[in-house]
Each structure stands twice: as structure tokens, then as C-alpha cells.
Amino acid sequence: MISKPINEEASAEHIELDSTKAADQENQDESARKLEKSLVRKLDMTLMPVIWILYLLNYLDRNNIAQAKLNGLEKDLGLKNEEYNTAISILNVGYILMQLPSNMLLTRVRPSLYIPLWVCVWSCLSAATAAVHNYRQLVAIRFCLGFAEAPFFPGAFYLLSCWYPKKEIALRTAVLYSGLVLATAFSGLLAAGIFAGLDGAHGLQGWRWLFIIEGAGSFFIAVATGFLLPDFPLSLTGSAKWLLTTEEREFAVRRIQNDQVSNEEANRSVWYGAKSALKDYRVFVFALMLCANHTAYGFNNFYPSIVEGFNLGSTIVTLVLTAPPYLVGAMVSFLVAWSSDRNRERGFHISVSMSTAIIGFIISASLTRSGGQYFASFLYVSGCFAANSLVYTWAASALSQTSEKRAAATAIINLLGQLGNIWSPYFFRGQDAPRYTLALILMIVFAGLSIGTCFVMKWILTRDNKRLVAQFANAAQKPTLHTL
């Protein structure tokens, strides 16, 4: 009997072991894919619809003052000069003051209770706007409304970033942001219906009914949605308790940890997270980017008045015509976010979107024909909305060293970004109506600033990625790099 050489037997055994390991790895990968698919599907059926609805309500309650302006709010309250502009701007002061404390607190409480609670509070305040009778009362209620609305968006986005990694977050943020877009679109249609059917009913002006109806609707929906919101992946509370298996929750934690550029577990206090965020200069670059975007998006609170200046029809027709640009903007946002996730790129997608907005502003400022100006509004509405949603996703992924830092950083970026919403209403001076040429020029400048910050951030993160590659050059583990 002829025996095989020892080295040949060892080689055959080695090949067999490699084959077994490969099969085991393939089975593990397939199991992980199935687990991830199940987890994402459940999140997309619960978490996403809830925060989408609440965000839509958030902007309905915040922006209904723009429709109220067309129904005589200024006249009924005796507003003069720039008092309407101040009423819009003051909301963002309250918004700024509450954002960072709220997001720091959110890391230590249950989002499924905390977020709906604040929705109920702002709903009551929004409905109370129907009771104001002068400028001082309007400013006071708008300031309190901003304070109550502040916890929602940064909190909702932070909750999203705790469940979705970089490869999924941009599209989900675009979906969330579409709530804003569609709220702005349908607010005009809703206002048109209320003004047509309830103006003067029971002795109340149509704009008062608008605040009452939208505030009441938001309150009751907020109470219902609290039962569907999950808390954090490690929590055994909220809808995740009955929605997800233990295996799915553990997988959710691992995939977010693996998605972070680095893990800093030494100090997980909320104060350390805030301090770490404040020391990171990238936070302030992102804040400048978002501030520039929000400034360029300052047309939003005046869009019904802008469309009214096109002289395309009555007040009802004007309100109806405010919807199409925002509906198109929602679709464009989805496409841009899908492309951004697929190509794992943020900066160029934001820059191209803002460039589109600039083209729209230039056309609107150059033309005198109402048809051309209305077409131009499609461009700047779509461009600004598509860009805004991507800034949040880019910042969250670049500043995700710990969940506490991410919560503080996104809140700081969002609150500083609100400065654009504070000063942009003053761009729209009464003497410039209906074309608002000065405002269009200033929005072009800030859109250009946004594009500039994108290139600066791409350069910063490219440099950081090179450092990470060099740091892990001799390590078996590959680093998670920043998305550019």
C-alpha cells in the first residue's frame, strides 16, 4: 500500500479546513444579512413613519403663520413695519436656547415619552396663537413655541442615528425631511380649505381657525404615536420591547458601534460629550454650512407672499400654487439622498444641490415674467431642501465617536444653524415686495458660502482619513473611514 506524503496530507487537510471556514463565514454573513434586513424593515415600519408624521406636524404648526399673513393676520393684530418679520424670527431664539440642553437630556431619558410630551406642549401653544390680539402677545407665544419645538428635530435625528448606520441614514433623513417639504406644500392647501369654509365662522377669522385646527390635530396624534416609538437599541422599553428580538437588538448595537470612526468608551457622561463636541472645530464648520443653508432657505416663511407677487390668481389660487414646488422638492430630495447613500458621498451632492438653488435665485431675480419666476422657484426649493437633509447626515457620521458627543454635536450644529433663520426674515423688506431682489441676492451669497464649506469639509475629512489609514497600517483591523 502506497501512502501519501506527509506534506500532501497536510496540504489536503489545510484545504479542507479553509473550505469549512469559508462555508462557516458564508453562513454567518447570510445570517447577518437576514437579521439586518428584518431589523431595518421593522424600524422602517415603526420609527420612520412616527417621526415623519411628527415632523410634518412640527412644520405645519410652525409655518402656518405664513398662510395666516394672507388672511389678514397683520391687519387684525395691527402689525407695522418689520413686526411680522420679528414674529417669525423670535421663534428661532427660543429654538436655539433649548436644543443643546434637550439633546443632552435625551441621552438619559426615554425618547418614546420625551418626544411626544414636547409635541403635546407645542400643539397647545400653537393652538393658543388663535387667542392673541396684539404684537406683544404674538411675539411671546412665538418665543415659547420655539422653545417647545426645539427638542423635536435634533432629538428625532439623534434617535435615527442610534439605529441607522451611515449607509442607510441619508435616505432616512431625506424621508424625515420630506415631512417638512410636504408640510409646507399641504399647509397651503389646508389653509385654502379653512379660509374658504371657516373664515368668519362663530365670529373667528380664518387664520384663527387655522391655528386651532392644526394645534388640536397635532396634540391627539402625538398621544397616539408615543406607543410606537422605540427607545435606544440597548433599552428594553418603548416599541422595541415587543417589536424586536433580543438578537435583533444586540445586532443593532453592534452595527452602530462598527460604523463609528472610533469608540471612546473612557468617559460617557453627557458633560464630557458636550465638552468633546465643543472642542472639535469640525462642529463649527458644519454649523457654518447649515447656517448658510438655512439662510438661503429663508424664502420659506415668505413663499406664499412671493407667489402672490406673481399675480397668478386669487388668494386661494396662490395657496394652491405653493404646493407643487415643494412636492417636486420632496422627490428631488429622495433621489439626491439615494444617490448619496449609494455612492457614499456627501459634499458634492450638497454642492450640486445648492448650485441648482443659486440658478433658481438668479433666474428669479433676472426675470419679470411671473411664469419664469414660478419655474425658478422649483429650482431653489428643490435645491435647498435636498442640501439641508444631507448636512445633518454628514455631520452625524463624522462626529460619532460616542453617542453623547453625537447628541451634543448635532444639537450645537442645529442651534447655530438657526441663526440663519433669525436674520433671513429681515432680508424680505416690505419695500422690496413683490420681487424681493435684495433677499434673492443675499440668498445667492449664502448658498455660495454653503458650497465653499463643503469643499473645506471634504479636505478636512480626506486628511483625517489619511491619518486613520496610516494609524492602522500595521494592524489587522481596518479603520472605519469618514464619508466624504
UniProtKB/TrEMBL annotation:
Residues 47-465 form the Major facilitator superfamily (MFS) profile domain. InterPro entries: MFS, MFS_dom, MFS_trans_sf. Residues 1-31 are annotated as: Disordered. It comes from the Eukaryota. Residues 11-31 have a biased composition (Basic and acidic residues). It holds the Pfam family MFS_1. Keywords: Membrane, Transmembrane, Transmembrane helix, Transport. The keyword Acyltransferase does not apply. SUPFAM superfamilies: MFS general substrate transporter. Gene3D superfamilies: MFS general substrate transporter like domains (1.20.1250.20). GO terms for cellular component: membrane. One of its GO terms (molecular function) is transmembrane transporter activity. It is a multi-pass membrane protein. The chain crosses the membrane at residues 113-133, 139-163, 175-197, 209-229, 283-303, 315-338, 350-368, 374-395, 407-426, 438-461. It is found in: Membrane. Belongs to the major facilitator superfamily. This is Major facilitator superfamily (MFS) profile domain-containing protein. It comes from Penicillium cosmopolitanum.
